[in-house]
Design goal:
Blueprint lengths: L6 H4 L4 H29 L5 E11 L2 E9 L5 E9 L5 E9 L7 E8 L6 E10 L6
Antiparallel strand pairs: 1-2, 2-5, 3-4, 3-6
């Protein structure tokens, strides 16, 4: 049994259709790969980074933490600080907001209320807030 297409019934295949399809698929693949590389490069570097430089256990219900924040000048940021117990459970959280500043890096101390004794403080992540544009 032949799997060839009957030319009498459907006509001869046009030679440019196959080439146009291949070129179209290649163009779409190149555009998709370029977008993927751009997105990976653009979103892989956070614009705000923070680290805990020191912390002090005040008592069983409070801990203070000093964080160092790197971000573009003039950009406000918000970081989630978490106080952890010896079993690594989260015993306190604080959404810390840092104002826009040109100081680089910015060092800020916060007090975190806890539900029980904390033995560590970590930064769980930071986000930036673009400065307001004048209208």
């Amino acid at each position: 049994m032949s799997t060839a297409r009957p030319v009498e019934r459907y006509g001869a295949p046009r030679p440019w259709v196959r080439r146009a399809t291949i070129v179209g698929v290649v163009v779409l693949a190149v555009i998709g790969a370029a977008w993927l590389l751009w997105a990976a490069a653009h979103h892989s570097r956070p614009d705000v980074t923070a680290r805990v430089t020191s912390f002090d256990v005040v008592d069983e219900r409070r801990v203070t933490a000093t964080i160092e924040l790197d971000r573009p000048p003039g950009v406000a940021a918000t970081c989630l600080l978490q106080a952890q117990a010896p079993d690594h459970g989260i015993v306190g959280e604080l959404q810390a907001t840092m104002p826009a500043s040109s100081e680089q890096p910015l060092s800020v101390t916060y007090q975190i209320p806890t539900e029980r004794l904390a033995t560590a403080v970590v930064v769980d992540g930071c986000t930036s807030a673009e400065p307001a544009r004048p209208r």
